[in-house]
Specification:
Blueprint: E1 2-10, E2 23-29, E3 41-45, E4 54-58, H1 61-67, E5 78-82, E6 85-88, E7 91-94
Parallel strand pairs: 3-5
Antiparallel strand pairs: 1-2, 1-4, 2-3, 4-5, 6-7
Length: 99
């Protein structure tokens, strides 16, 4: 799992059958200090997150099936939690610090 920030939405009118009714988000991974790290990714949203939210991203396709309650879905990146804050190296990092 990784910490990320939601930076956008993806709109798709034509999708694989297993993806209908699912929401896609653009997420930007964060390092432990809340700074952007690496390329942005498209993720399934299993928790109704929104732009600007600090989220926990699952990067295991098998877990996505459980989170989305769908054995047929194919997903390697799934938002599985919205974070209020986290601590690291004596510091507390939260939503407002990641903006």
């Amino acid at each position: 799992m990784r910490i990320a920030k939601v930076v956008g939405n993806v709109v798709s009118t034509i999708k694989e059958q297993t993806h209908y009714g699912k929401k896609f988000l653009i997420v930007e991974y964060m390092d432990e200090y809340g700074k952007p790290q690496g390329a942005r990714q498209i993720a399934f949203d299993a928790v109704d997150a929104g732009i600007g939210d600090l989220v926990l991203v699952n990067v295991d396709g098998g877990a996505a099936k459980m989170l989305l309650n769908d054995e047929n879905v194919i997903s390697n990146v799934t938002v599985c939690g919205v974070l209020d804050h986290y601590t690291f190296d004596g510091g507390v990092f939260d939503q407002k610090e990641s903006k």
